[in-house]
């Protein structure tokens, strides 16, 4: 399978008042052509920082890529100029954020912005671009698309603007779509519609999708593979069926404590006690130890590695590794 996005050993650090915060600490994620990879975990686990790093959009954060590599179609993104990067974004690489980072331009009408993106990327003439724009607005569930096209962003509600952003990201048939909580703020019907759209895009255009979400129902419906993140690290990775049928990491088991359905937000699960550690109280060993019912001596002393536990399954947990050897070191 053809690799579209390869994030390898990514380290993104924040320089705060109290020193360095390792928001992303050695994360590796690959997304192949036509594949949807879910990245799941609670807030503060480094999911969004991983996606912002991949799009090289850290400038509004105190973050900085301190190590590792990010490749798109084999090209190193970290070596591109800002201008080259801008050409990739919104073209071959598109993104959808819950709080649109690249918000709509307030001085242009919705239609103009959408049509320009479509003309640029799909090479349609003006008339065809307008028809496509209206179609896209209808597909993301916007009523009176023919009118909205003549309105300015401020005339729309936040939820409507979010859908315009989604239409814009999908209108250009990107090769890679990075979606960070794309539907969280929307109602369930619209949410289902937008997930359908993303599936269509993947099936018709072989788009690779990295889908960052709290929502285990969305993961179950959309993803081929799932990466579970905790405290800036990947703690488990496998295909979606295995994840739900045979989760290995105690954190994943906690997340999947109930049957996933659309709208099942991991933030609201009470199956895991305690909270994600803050940088100030980051445990020395396994970062999950303070919340883990299985924690052993070794867990408090050393952080386990992410190791293969099965074909197509990796897990970062001492329950699956040689503890005695670890304690000798
Ligand atoms: Fe729990 Fe230990 Fe596994 Fe960490 S390494 S998840 S503390 S059992
Ligand atoms: Mg986030």
Automatic annotation (TrEMBL):
Task: Note the SUPFAM superfamilies from the entry.
Answer: P-loop containing nucleoside triphosphate hydrolases
CDD domains under this entry?
A: ABC_NikE_OppD_transporters
Statement: the UniProt record of this protein carries the keyword ATP-binding: yes
Q: Which domain of life is it from?
A: Bacteria
Molecular-function annotations in GO: ATP binding
Membrane-related topology note: Peripheral membrane protein
Q: Which residues form the ABC transporter domain?
A: 5-256
The places in or outside the cell where this protein is found are: Cell membrane
Arranged from A to Z, the UniProt key words for this protein are: ATP-binding, Cell membrane, Membrane, Nucleotide-binding, Transport
Q: Which Gene3D superfamilies match?
A: P-loop containing nucleotide triphosphate hydrolases (3.40.50.300)
- Key word Ubl conjugation present: no
Q: Which family does it belong to?
A: Belongs to the ABC transporter superfamily.
What is this protein identified as?
A: ABC transporter ATP-binding protein
């Amino acid at each position: 399978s053809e690799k579209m996005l390869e994030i390898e050993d990514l380290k993104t650090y924040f320089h705060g008042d109290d020193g360095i915060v390792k928001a992303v600490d050695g994360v590796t994620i690959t997304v192949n052509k036509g594949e949807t990879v879910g990245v799941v975990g609670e807030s503060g686990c480094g999911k969004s920082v991983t996606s912002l790093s991949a799009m090289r959009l850290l400038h509004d954060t105190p973050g900085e890529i301190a190590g590792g590599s990010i490749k798109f179609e084999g090209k190193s993104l970290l070596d591109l100029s800002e201008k080259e990067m801008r050409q990739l974004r919104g073209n071959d690489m598109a993104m959808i954020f819950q709080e649109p980072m690249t918000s709509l331009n307030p001085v242009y009408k919705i239609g103009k912005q959408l049509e320009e993106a479509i003309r640029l990327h799909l090479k349609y003439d003006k008339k065809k671009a307008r028809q496509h724009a209206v179609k896209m607005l209808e597909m993301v569930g916007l009523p009176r698309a023919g009118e909205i096209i003549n309105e300015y962003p401020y005339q729309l509600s936040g939820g409507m603007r979010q859908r315009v952003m989604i239409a814009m990201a999908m209108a250009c048939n990107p090769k890679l779509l990075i979606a960070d909580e794309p539907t969280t703020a929307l109602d369930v019907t619209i949410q289902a519609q937008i997930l359908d759209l993303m599936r269509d895009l993947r099936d018709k255009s072989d788009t690779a999708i990295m889908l960052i979400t709290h929502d285990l129902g969305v993961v179950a419906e959309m993803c081929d593979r799932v990466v579970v993140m905790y405290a800036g690290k990947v703690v488990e990775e496998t295909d979606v069926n295995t994840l739900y049928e045979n989760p290995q990491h105690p954190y994943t088991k906690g997340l999947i404590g109930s049957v996933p359905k659309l709208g099942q937000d991991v933030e609201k699960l009470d199956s895991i006690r305690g909270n994600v550690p803050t940088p100030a109280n980051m445990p020395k060993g396994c970062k999950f130890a303070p919340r883990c019912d299985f924690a052993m001596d070794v867990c408090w002393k050393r952080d386990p590695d992410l190791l293969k536990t099965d074909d197509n399954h990796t897990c970062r947990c001492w329950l699956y590794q040689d503890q005695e050897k670890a304690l000798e070191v």
